[in-house]
Amino acid sequence: MGGRAGAGTGAGRIWSDDRGDDVDPAPLLTGHGQPVTFARWYLDWLDRAEQQIR
Q1: Which backbone phi and psi does 36 adopt, to 5 degrees?
Q2: Beta-carbon neighbour count of residue 37 at 10 Å?
Q3: Which residues sit opposite 13 in a β-bridge?
Q4: Confidence (pLDDT) at 18
Q5: Are 14 and 44 in contact (CB under 8 A)?
Q6: pLDDT of residue 43
Q7: Rounded to whole angstroms, what are the CA distances from 5 to 17, 49, 52?
Q8: CA–CA gap between residue 38 and residue 2 (Å, rounded)
Q9: Strand 2-4 to strand 26-27: parallel, antiparallel, or no bridges (unpaired)?
Q10: pTM to 2 decimals?
Q11: For 1-54, what is each residue's pLDDT tens digit?
């Protein structure tokens, strides 16, 4: 499960929330270890969705 931080130092970043599996929430990171912003996550999602309909 994921979520987006709306305020504070994590604002606009996507978080992984696996508390159901006894894992604390953590920022979703790129392959380079940078936090994933909502804009980056959304644009990547659009690219994947567009490729699926082609």
Answers
A1: -85, 125
A2: 16
A3: 37
A4: 83
A5: no
A6: 94
A7: 11, 24, 28
A8: 11
A9: unpaired
A10: 0.64
A11: 556 556 677 778 888 888 888 888 888 898 899 999 989 989 999 999 999 998
Burial of 35 (0-12, 13-18, 19+ CB in 10 A): middle
3-state SS, the chain, equals: CEEECCCHHHCCEEEECCHHHCCCCEECECCCCCECEHHHHHHHHHHHHHHHHC
Q: Which amino acid is at 7?
A: A
The reported pLDDT for the residue numbered 54 is: 83
Is the distance from CB of 13 to CB of 35 less than 8 angstroms?
Answer: yes
Q: Determine the pLDDT at residue 1.
A: 54
Side-chain-side CA neighbours of residue 46 (13 Å): 6
